[in-house]
Amino acid sequence: MSMEAEYCCPRCKGTLISLTDSYHCPACRAHYPIILGIPDFRVFPDRYIDIVEDRRKAERIFERASISDFSTLVDYYWSITPDTPSEMARRFSAQAVNAVERGRHLLNVHSTVKAKLEERGARVLDLGTRTGGLLMAAAEHGRRTIGIDIAFRWLIIARKRLEDANLPAMFACCCAEFLPFRNETFTLVVAENLLEHTARQQQSIEEAHRVLKPDGVFFATTWNRLTLAPEPHVRLWGIGWLPRKLAKRYVKFRKGVSYDYVRLLSLFELRHLLRCTLFRRCEILLPTFSEAELANISSAQRLAVELYHRIKDWPLFRELLRIFGPVLHLVCVVFHKSVATACAEILTKSRLSPETLHFIATLLKRIEKTAATTLLNDFS
């Protein structure tokens, strides 16, 4: 069965009708165009740019892609994005070039994730694929992969990366909070540095849970709000320790860029977020850093990373580093969905309020220890 056959309406989760240049939902009458070969299922736009301008920019990148390799195309993107300071653009370009090596490392660093990727017939969804580094690393394993991003322009660049490598993958433009996939479609859902950029963080995690198969794994990386290292997006110290409103003003004053759409989470905030989800098991782990991630840091920072690697497995330092370290890894496993799923499907069709549905879902989780994932379908 093709992945296309498993698309659903991101709004109502109804069955879609595939037309020549679009998808149509008879249930809620939503219409989703296919542009440059990529379906656009967005419920709301990228917060940095409106949908019309995003598509226009994607078309410019698409035209340039025919005469450029991947690296040149990334440079071209930043050349037509003048509101990004040149220092940040150079850093982001270097990160894009190293993204595949970083992705290979991430997919092998935790045994649970590695085992799921190696399952026969595994299907992988990359949330917030950006330039496709992690997606390409998964595709190298011969797995069926699909990359999604709210930024249409980045999907054109990611597709170019995989085309240059002669690797198959599918792409869809959509919101992480409103995924256009049917329940229990994927074996593994990955999200590298996505949560801090989503409009609704808990809903993004709930959607990842919904599209995962029984025993499926959600793997996410996120920068730690309380890190003692410089904030990774703007390279300023102590941003996470400030009240959020003050942090936005400080970044605007120091760097001249908006910090309105970045919401880093601390260990404690992440734990609180996960308590409201329906995963069977959630672990917050400390990463090891690959050489690709260390390629563009100073010698002092490299020494700090070496010290981090030496002490991160010591019990005392492990907990301190989860509070103050730079990055947190999240590995969540889905329940076997059995009786609770059947109950949930019935209840979802009822006219109960979202609050009542959430209460019942929590009871099912606690009493039967089974994930009633479809109870959350109506929350959007």
From the structure above, extract its key features.
380 residues; 14 helices; 2 domains; 15% strand; globular; alpha/beta; single chain; 4-stranded antiparallel β-sheet; 7-stranded mixed β-sheet; Rossmann fold
Report on this structure:
By secondary structure, this protein is an alpha/beta fold. The chain folds into two domains: 42-225 and 264-333, Vaccinia Virus protein VP39 (Rossmann fold, 3-Layer(aba) Sandwich), CATH 3.40.50; 339-379, no CATH class. 41% of the residues lie in helices and 15% in strands. It has a seven-stranded mixed beta sheet with strand order 7-6-5-8-9-11-10, with helices on both faces. It is globular, with a radius of gyration of 21 Å.
CATH class of the largest domain: Alpha Beta
Supply the CATH superfamily name of the largest domain.
Vaccinia Virus protein VP39
Number of strands: 11
Sheet of most strands: 7 strands, mixed
Biggest sheet strand line-up: 7-6-5-8-9-11-10
Mean pLDDT: 89
Number of helices: 14
Helix content: 40-55%
The domain tally reads 2
Note the run of SSEs as H and E. EEEEHHHHHEHEHEEHEHHEHHEHH
In short:
By secondary structure, the protein is of the alpha/beta class. The chain is built from 14 helices and 11 strands.
